[in-house]
Amino acid sequence: MTPIIPVGTSATKADALQRRFVDQIVASTPHERLTAWYYTPMALRFSDHLAYDVCVYDCMDELSAFKNAPAELNQLEKALFQRADIVFTGGQSLYEAKRSLHRSIFPFPSSIDVAHFHQAREPGEDPLDQANIPHPRVGYFGVIDERLDVELVAQAAAAMPDVHFVLLGPVVKIDPARLPTASNLHWLGGKSYADLPRYLRHWSAGWMPFKLNEATRYISPTKTPEFLAAGLPVVSTAIVDVVRTYGAEGLVDIVDAEDVEAKLRSILARPRDFLVEKVDAYLADMSWEKTWNAMAAHIQRAYAMQSVVPLLRGA
C-alpha cells in the first residue's frame, strides 16, 4: 500500500494520516500473525503503536550518511533496534558495522532474478531513445544522486570520445543542471525494471562509477549481479562489498580515476562473453527465493521464541 498525501501537508499531519491508514489496513485484513517489516526507522513515527507478533528491521543502507538525512534518524534507529526481534542487513560491510547493536542480526547481500536479466543475452530491438547512440556503449542504471561520481563520468567521457556512455535513472537530490554534458554522454532518465534488459542487451559493458564516501561506505549494489547476469563485463570503483566479493573472484574490474580509461578499453577489447561461464557458476546459487527462504526461517524462529521466552523467565 502506498499512502497518497496532499502536497503541502505538514510532517505532523502526514504522520497522523499514515497512522490512520496503517490502523485501517491492519483492522481490515484478516490475519493470524502480524509482522512489522521496516526498511526505514522513520516509519516508527506513524507505527510505533502497533501490536505485532514479530518486528523485522531490514537495514538496506546506512541511511544517516545520505544527503538530507532527517535529524531524528539516528534516534529512531536506536528505538527500532530495541523493538526489532530480528535485523537483516543489505551487505556484509553493513552487517559488520551494525552487528554489535542487536542480538539477532544477519547479512543478506543482494540476490538476482537471473531469468529476467538473462533476457539481455538474447537478440532484440534497441529502445527508441537509445537506437541512434553509436557503439561501443558503456552503461549505468540506477538512481543518480550524491553517490554517483559525476566528475569521474565526465573524465571518462572526455578521455574516450569514441565510447558512448549511457546512464539510466531518475536524478534525485542533486541539480540535473549540474550533470556533465558531452556528445558521448547520454542521460536517458528513469526506466522500468521490466525494460532494463532491452537496454542492457545493446551495451558493450556496464560500470558503477560510485564516489567513495560515507554514503557509499556500506552499500552492496544490487546492480552488480544484475549486470553480470545480463552477460556484461563490469567495472566498478572500489566499493568495499564489490571488491571483497566480485572483485576478489575476478568477476568485476576495480577502477579509480587514474586507470578508468585503461580498464574500460581492456574489457571493451575482450569478447562480451569472456567470463560468462564463470559468472553463471557464481550466480547459480543466488536466487531471491533462496534469500527469502533463509529470511523466513529466521523470522519463524523469532516468532517461536515469543512463546518460549516468557516460559524461561517464569522458570
Strand order, main sheet: write it out: 7-6-5-8-9-10
Which structural class do you get from the secondary structure elements? alpha/beta
What overall geometry do the principal axes of the alpha carbons give? Answer: globular
The biggest sheet amounts to: 6 strands, parallel
Give average pLDDT, whole number. Answer: 93
Task: Classify the helix fraction into a percent range.
Answer: 25-40%
Q: pLDDT under 50 segments (min length 5)?
A: none
Run of helices and strands = HEHEHEHEHEHEEHEHEHEHHH
Number of strands: 10
The gyration radius over C-alpha positions equals 22 Å
Beta-strand proportion:
5-15%
What keywords describe this structure?
13% strand; alpha/beta; 6-stranded parallel sheet; 12 helices; 10 strands
3D structure, described in words:
The relative contact order is 0.12. It contains twelve helices and ten strands. Helix 2 links the parallel strand 1 (35-38) and strand 2. It is 38% helix and 13% strand. The mean pLDDT is 93. It has helices spanning 11-28, 44-47, 73-83, 92-98, 114-118, 150-159, 196-200, 223-229, 240-247, 260-268, 276-283, 288-314; strands at residues 35-38, 54-59, 86-89, 105-107, 137-141, 164-168, 185-189, 205-208, 234-236, 253-254. The chain has 315 residues and is an alpha/beta fold. A six-stranded parallel sheet has the order 7-6-5-8-9-10, sandwiched between helices.
Provide a brief overview of the structure:
The chain contains 12 helices and 10 strands. The protein is an alpha/beta fold and 315 residues long.
